[in-house]
């Protein structure tokens, strides 16, 4: 027997690349095949939708808020915190200053920086307990029977964020009544 007798006939075309073969068999029953132009258009539409959703979230629209920020009680807590000033919102910049002071070769200055850091942390924790009690009292007055679970920590954490970086954005100015 010769070699040509045992070999199968040629198929007449090149074997397709794996990605082309897989793409042929892959069928998405939900969406139609999309061209590059359609993808770019969809990408722009998604980008615009995300920007609008972010703007609504920052405005405090109830429908755009996640579950942790939704509801009149959480709005009251946000307004309460935003209408008052707190040293806690300057905690992060203060820690940057403390970090810079610890790089100074003077032992006295480094000691002062450490004392400053611990006193700021202590103040923040004590303020957290005080503001938590005030928030719970206010919620019990305005929304009797409503659960106050987690509201104190929610308010305290908001008070430790820099005002410009709070999300949703503050709706009240400092000194406004709630």
TrEMBL record:
The chain crosses the membrane at residues 87-105, 111-132. Residues 1-22 are annotated as: Disordered. Pfam families: DUF3043. This is Unannotated protein. InterPro entries: DUF3043. Keywords: Membrane, Transmembrane, Transmembrane helix.
């Amino acid at each position: 027997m010769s070699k040509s007798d045992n070999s199968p006939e040629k198929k007449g075309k090149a074997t397709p690349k794996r990605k082309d073969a897989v793409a042929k068999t892959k069928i998405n029953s939900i969406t139609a095949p999309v061209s590059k132009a359609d993808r770019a258009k969809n990408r722009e539409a998604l980008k615009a939708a995300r920007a609008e959703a972010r703007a609504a979230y920052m405005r405090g629209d109830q429908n755009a808020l996640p579950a942790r920020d939704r509801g009149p009680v959480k709005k009251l807590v946000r307004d309460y915190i935003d209408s008052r000033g707190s040293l806690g919102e300057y905690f992060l910049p203060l820690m940057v200053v403390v970090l810079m002071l610890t790089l100074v070769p003077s032992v006295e200055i480094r000691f002062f920086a450490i004392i400053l850091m611990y006193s700021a942390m202590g103040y923040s924790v004590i303020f957290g307990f005080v503001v938590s009690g005030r928030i719970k009292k206010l919620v019990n007055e305005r929304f009797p029977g409503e659960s106050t679970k987690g509201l104190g920590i929610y308010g305290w954490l908001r008070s430790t964020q820099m005002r410009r970086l709070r999300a949703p954005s503050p709706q009240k100015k400092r000194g406004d009544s709630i």
